[in-house]
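Contributing new records

If you add data, match the layout below exactly. Sequence lines come first and carry their own label; structure lines follow with theirs. Keep one chain per record. Anything else will be rejected by the validation script.
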Amino acid sequence: MEEKAEAGLALIFTAPIATVALIIATTFGGIIGSAVWIFGKVWQIGFPTIWRVKIEQKEISKSPCPEGGIKEGIIHGVAISIVMFIAWVLAHDSLDNSEIRGFVEPFGLLNPWLYFAAFVYWVTFNSLLEEYLFRWFIFEKFETFVGGKWAVILASLAFTSHHIFGTAEMFPWWAIILASIGVFSGGVMWSWLYLRHRSIWPSYVSHVIVDITMFAIGAYILFA
């Protein structure tokens, strides 16, 4: 199969399916939502791996990180977190915390222990999975069509569309726009880190720092 045709097919079977699974999970909640969410995560892991081994016939890489990459990731993560915290301080009085609590309640996240378990999962696994999917697999497939610089933009748009539906259930329109700009900006920084280092580890470290900040703000909203 021609390289661009392969890349296009791979994109169809990753970003849209992952996003549709997230939409269904956040719309229904409960057992159905949880089951679809788990399916989406398994698909995000399995499909790129099978594609690389069976279709591209390449070995699985550990994505080795060059010197200086982790330091850059830390700097980016701290910078994004500072901006995120300032944005929340400026906007939190306009948010309906009860509406946010109502959205997460079907997922059991008003239980502090389950919230902590979700936090551990997010920073140890989900952040890594998103870097694996969006910064490695999807980025490189877009790169086949448009080159590295434009792939940074396209992969970040895919990353943003994947997250926007979750925020749409919790926040007013202005906060959704603000959050989408933030997610897109983070996606651009993380895709650029991948383009620069050809490793998911710098962007993963940055992503973890941002998720820690996000969960800290979330804990204040839910439990303070």
